[in-house]
Specification:
The protein is an alpha/beta fold. Helices cover 46% and strands 19% of the residues.
Length: 630
């Protein structure tokens, strides 16, 4: 039996039907990737499945006791507390116990009084009865992997960090169906790779929307597309889905051409005069009326955006040249001794973990920041356009038209005057949508709007900071083609591996410690070159080579004798640590321990925290060696 079944679901929100009798089943073990153009209803369908919305008609059947957890694109309003509490809230009924245990333990580390100890004892007992210890470890494991501070106040975090916290909350909840809406937004490549691996190994059933083609290719075993109120589901991965979809679209174009030809012929016939109204032809007239009605109700597929770039006069041959450039914030190195040259026409990708300084490097290369050591030489005749990933250039309270036109009804695009409504239609904004406030737009629509706003101005240097977030597949493909044909210079920060592979000609890789390495080609080229370097490097150089290069090489070899011995000893080592952990929990559960233990309580709690970290390390190492063995 399916976990959830949607039968003949309709939903319109008072306008044209968003869903027009759709049917969908999700079975246990499905990893279903939901595709569709911006505005086709993907997020709305996720809310229906998650129980946040009800259909206007149709039926949704769920297995009894079905648990569905959803990670939305937007951060929920009114969410507060420290990061540990927010993540633990995904655990359900045991969440309050975990949160209080975490708080009391934290207070005991600074103030060991009898009242706190008594409360800790009671909490420990309740947690043991509710399997709370394993859940506590799971929360800490996910927090550690997503590099989240458990004591940080949620409301004070950046938008990207809040998304990581909400992702952690969704991951620890162990749902029957995990729903993820653009889960890779604001995650760096390392975290995306970890998320792919985590979902593949630990989450049985997942429904997700993503613009990240590599992510979809790695995870999906089913693919579905929303298109003009209908849903088309395929039991296949992403690549086969794209082939099947193209075949369906070609067949649809052929059918519509035959339909239009027949309708035109019948319209000619009916205009021939009185013969068409004779009794023996009434059936043909009724058939014509039916054809007219079918034509009237037919929904055309949304067109493809017609994005154009305005190119300014060429910049100087040199765009930027650095020699030993160094920059740090509060003593933390961002860029250290970077020497590189960027020439006119170069397409440079910038890769690195969140917080490694990618945006800072952009500002240095643009001359917005001065290096603290070393030199930077900037080229001449530079006309720069900057795509900001936070979309701060958009004014939410103004309309789409006002954001782009800035008070004007016409624009000059590549020397030709264009009415702003016609220009916005090239970016798939209808006249009605063009008059709507930006605040009601989806994430993908805001990205398209920012592109429309930027591309009203000519440039010869294009700087794009995470431009692919929320864009649908068609617009993403078009943007790729546009950037590949752009004659100016491109500086691109992106976590989208396929986009980098298809667009850039060289890559600067920030490792988070100030070191920046330069490679020819895109993301896959970086991995390949890093692996080759690792094979011939000295130990000192190996340490500086990106972890992805190490991973690539490690996965292509067998375990060494030393690693086999290590793998054999890990189960016993883990068992010994778990036994010690159990003994310490037993001591903490004994009321007499608090009467006679004194300061020993703090020592025991401290050792338990150490054990959690040690076990996490050994479990990860065990998993790593097992994967190499396989």
């Amino acid at each position: 039996m399916a976990l959830i079944s949607l039968r003949n679901i309709t939903l319109a929100f008072g306008g044209p039907p968003l869903f027009n009798g759709i049917n969908l089943q999700i079975e246990s073990g499905d990893r279903l990737c939901l595709m569709g153009r911006n505005g086709s209803g993907k997020s709305t369908l996720l809310k229906l499945i998650g129980g946040e919305l009800l259909p206007e008609s149709g039926e949704i059947q769920r297995q009894q006791g079905l648990k569905v957890t959803q990670l939305t694109q937007d951060v929920p309003q009114g969410l507060s507390g420290n990061v540990f509490d927010v993540v633990a809230s995904g655990m359900g009924t045991v969440a309050a116990l975990l949160a209080e245990y975490h708080r009391v333990s934290h207070e005991l580390a600074h103030d060991s009084n009898g009242k706190l100890m008594s409360r800790l004892e009671a909490l420990q007992k309740e947690l043991e009865e509710n399997d709370g210890w394993s859940l506590h470890q799971e929360v800490e494991r996910v927090l550690n992997r997503l590099d989240l501070d458990p004591e940080a106040e949620f409301t004070a975090l950046s938008g990207g960090t809040k998304r990581r916290v909400l992702l952690a909350r969704a991951l620890v909840s162990s749902p029957d169906i995990l729903i993820l809406d653009e889960p890779t937004n604001h995650l760096d490549i390392d975290t995306i790779l970890w998320l792919e691996e985590f979902l593949a190994k630990n989450v049985k059933t997942v429904l997700f929307v993503t613009h990240d083609r590599a992510f979809a290719r790695r995870l999906a075993n089913r693919t579905a597309e929303l298109d003009r109120g209908r849903i088309y589901a395929f039991t296949c991965g992403y690549d086969e889905f794209t082939e099947r979809r193209e075949a369906l679209l070609e067949a649809e174009i052929t059918r519509q051409a035959l339909f239009d030809k027949k309708l035109a012929q019948e319209e000619v016939w009916v205009r021939q005069g009185i013969k068409a109204r004779r009794t023996r032809n009434e059936g043909r007239v009724r058939a014509l009326k039916k054809l007219r009605e079918e034509s009237r109700q037919r929904q055309e597929r949304q067109g493809v955006a017609k994005i154009q770039l305005q190119v300014a006069d060429r910049s100087g041959a040199l765009v930027a040249e650095t020699a030993g450039m160094t920059f740090a914030y509060d003593g933390h190195p961002i860029v250290k001794n970077l020497s590189t040259t960027i020439m006119r026409g170069d397409r440079v990708g910038i890769i690195g973990p969140n917080g490694s300084g990618k945006t800072t490097l952009l500002r240095l290369l643009l001359g917005e920041l001065e290096p603290q050591h070393g030199e930077i030489k900037l080229g001449t005749r530079r006309e720069v356009l900057y795509f900001d990933q936070l979309r701060e250039q958009l004014e939410l309270n103004k309309s789409v038209q006002e954001n782009v036109g800035e008070g004007n009804d016409t624009l000059v695009i590549n020397g030709k005057s264009r009415h702003i409504i016609g220009y916005l239609q090239d970016f798939l904004f209808s006249p009605e949508r063009a008059r709507s406030p930006v605040s009601i737009l989806s994430g993908g629509e805001r990205n398209r709007l920012l592109l429309a706003k930027l591309f009203t101005k000519p440039s010869n240097i294009l700087v794009m900071d995470e431009p692919t977030n929320d864009l649908d597949a068609e617009t993403l493909d078009l943007l790729e083609d546009l950037l590949c044909e752009y004659p100016g210079t491109l500086l691109l920060v992106s976590h989208d591996r396929e986009f980098l592979n298809n667009v850039v000609s060289s890559t600067l890789v920030l490792n988070g410690d100030g070191s920046v390495r330069e490679f020819i080609g895109g993301y896959d080229d970086w991995l390949s070159q890093a692996a080759k370097e690792l094979a011939t490097a000295t130990p000192a150089v190996q340490k500086a080579i990106p972890e992805k290069g190490k991973t690539l090489k490690e996965k292509s070899r067998k375990l060494s004798f030393k690693e086999e011995r290590e793998l054999d000893t890990l189960p016993d080592l883990i068992a010994a640590l778990e036994k010690e952990q159990e003994e310490l929990h037993s001591r903490l559960a004994d009321p007499e321990f608090y009467k006679n233990g004194g300061g020993e309580v703090v020592v025991v709690n401290s050792r338990l925290a150490e054990l959690d970290q040690e076990l996490e390390t050994f479990f990860l190492r065990w998993d790593e060696l097992e994967s190499l063995k396989g």
